[in-house]
Amino acid sequence: MDCVLADELSLAFSAEFSRSERRETLLTSAGPVTIHRPIGAASKGDVILLPGWSGPRTGPADALVFIASKLADHGWTSIRLDLPGRGDAQASGPIDLDAMIDAAAGCASTSVSSGRRVLLGICSGGNVALGAAPLKSCAAFDTVVAISTFPFQPARTQQFDQLRRWKNFKRYAGKALAPSTWLRLIKGEINVDRVKKNVAATEKPVEGRNLKDSARDIENELREWKGSALFIWGGGDDEARPARTHYELLHSNGMGKPKRVEFHTVSGANHNFYGKAWREEMVTEILRFLAI
Q1: pLDDT in the model for residue 3
Q2: I need a surface site. Which of 88, 136, 201, 285 has the fewest CB within 10 A?
Q3: Distances in whole angstroms, Cα of residue 264 to Cα of each of 11, 22, 104, 212, 245
Q4: Is residue 207 part of a domain?
Q5: What per-residue confidence (pLDDT) applies to 28?
């Protein structure tokens, strides 16, 4: 991915201003990126924000926009990008995890400001950040923030599959109680086959390649990685507890040592941190971690 500065662009540039940030949308050869720059002080460094598997650079319910603006309030420059085939980013053919990691590493190769370098991802974006961190091209990015991030595919157990099915079942069961859902069903606006697959299917396909898997053994590479990392989950996310246990074990086996690796759970928060108080606590933890 060619992630470059505004004066190197020939296609598009737009900017928005608030009291504490300057927001620029730059169109690169791989698609647009949005940069949040702090106003009134030198930037403390760059934070690349990575969305989940199928989401755009805004994140779920604008979570990454919220995080980027809060980081700008405290002197950090944030770069939000669409991963290949998502949002406004172009792609040809199916996109796998390694292609997303390559895109993040390509963006990391260009500095927007001086100072520290941080990779931050939500859900599968956290896997992308963790997958990019051990690469030589991302050596300057020695800090990762992973939000609602689960183990990489080879480490997923039957327990995770069961939790995923149970979480989907509860979500759809709740929707089934709403009269509006039945009205949409009668009108044929609900894809029943997709609902069945989401409730019953595992993330590991019976046949064919799993696009969420990597050709690399990333978790083995992370055991040798010496950067700092902050992991955040929501306490209301059914898969959070085993995910935290998994990454705590990975840390005990070498990941991040001797630097800092911390784990935080926001009580009651769901997977995407929809509540404002949950998001505020999440950002408070991120800022605290980056300030150390």
Answers
A1: 42
A2: 136
A3: 41, 30, 24, 25, 12
A4: no
A5: 73
- The H or E element that residue 199 is part of is helix 192-200
- What's the CA gap between 45 and 39, in Å, rounded? 13
Q: How far apart are CA 276 and CA 272, in angstroms?
A: 11
pTM for the model: 0.81
- Nearest-5° Cα angle at 90, 85 to 91: 60
pLDDT value of residue 173: 58
Express as a percent the part of the chain with pLDDT over 90: 61
Does residue 134 share a domain with residue 77?
A: yes
Beta bridge partners of 31: 28
Residue 47 to residue 44: CA distance in whole angstroms: 10
If we measure between CA atoms, which residue out of 69, 27, 63 comes closest to residue 47?
69
132 shares a domain with 121: yes
**Looking at the structure, do residues 257 and 273 belong to the same domain, yes or no?**
yes
pLDDT at 76: 96
Do 93 and 17 belong together in one domain? yes
pLDDT tier, 212 (very low <50, low <70, confident <90, very high otherwise): very high
Domain count within the chain: 2
Q: Any idea of the CA torsion for 268, 274, 279, 281, to the nearest 10 degrees?
A: -10
Distance separating alpha carbons of residues 52 and 66, to the nearest angstrom: 15
